[in-house]
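#struct-help
A.M.: can someone run this one for me? Single chain, 104 residues.
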Amino acid sequence: MAACDFANFYLLSPKNTLFALGLQPAYYKAQNSDFAHECAQCHTLYLPFVQTSDKHEKIMAKLENHFGDDANIDDETNEKILEFLRQNLAQKIKLKMGDKVCQK
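D.P.: on it. Structure tokens below:
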């Protein structure tokens, strides 16, 4: 079995670690289409709960130099995305990974 096939089987298996943690699939396009569209245009769509509030605030405040790229968006879209990120912070997610992120 190729590594890719194994990974797909593992991720789709209801007994994999992610499902055991009680995580449900996240449909960000439905939850916040601005977040899904704007952020996934240029990079992997990172889970909102892997960052803390202060990191989200800093990233969204400096989109004109977003890791070397100009990712500026209008103020209204920026606020919608930022509010979505605030609602899904590492501090609000009851997972060990969220706890580790908050400790850094």
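A.M.: thanks! Residues 41 and 71 are 10 Å apart (CA to CA).
D.P.: also worth noting: Helices lie at 3-12, 17-20, 28-31, 33-40, 53-61, 75-87, 96-103.
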